[in-house]
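Chain A, query sequence.
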Amino acid sequence: MYLTEDFRYNGAENFDWEAFFAPHRENDLFKQMDPEKLISRMRKHLQENNFKLSFAVSRLMRNLLKGCEPISPAVLELGAATGFLTRWLLSNYGGHGVLVDRSEASFKAYCALNDDLKGSITYLREDIFEFEFVRPFDVVCSFGLIEHFRDKHDVMEVHKKFLAPNGLILVLVPMDTPLSRTFLEIHPELNLGYRELMSEKEFKGVLMSNGLDVVGYGVSFGYVYDFCGAVCRVA
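Chain A, predicted structure.
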C-alpha cells in the first residue's frame, strides 16, 4: 500500500471535502509545496529499474513472438547500447548476436556487464549507416532508436538491409502517452536530442510506409514509461 503525501490534513476524519472540491484550490496547494521536493519525488517514482524493465520487456516480447519464435537466431541489434534485446533473445532462444553502436559510453557500459551471454556476442563500435556485414541475420532489432530520426526511411532501410529471407524485424519504441511524456520531462538528462513519441497509429504507419508487414504488435504498460513493439517481415 502506498500512502500519498498530505500537505494539509492529518487523517481522514479531518479531511476537508469542501476545500477538496473548491474551485481554484490548486493555487493554495501549490503555495504550500516545495517545487524541488516535488520534482525529486516524481523523479524517484519514475526512476528506471533494470529488473522492472526486464519484466515488462519479457512480457511484451513473448506476446510479440508467439507463433514465430526464432530458433538459435543470428541477431543484429542497431543502436544497441548494452544489447538488451539481443541478450534477451539469446537467453530465450539461443544463437549469437552482433551489436552495433558508435557510442563509447554505451560500449563501456556493455563491457561492465557480468553476463555469460557476452561470449556469444560481437560488439561493433561503428555507425549503423556505415558498417558492413556479409552474412544476413534472422532477426534485426532495435529498442528506442527510430524515434530519434525525423525521416525514418534510412534507419528502416538499415533494418531491412541485413535481414535474411523471411527474417524478422523487431522494433520497440517509447509510446506517446501521458506517462511517457512526464517521464521525459522530469528526466531532462535523458531528453537532450531529437525524439518523437509516437502513437500506436503513427508507429504502425512508419512501419507499413517503409515496406513492412506487421505480423505481431503489442503495448507494454506498467513500467516507468510506456512503450510499444512490433514484429515485422518485409512485404
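The beta strands are 74-78, 96-100, 121-124, 137-143, 163-174, 212-220, 227-234. DSSP finds nine helices and seven strands in the chain.
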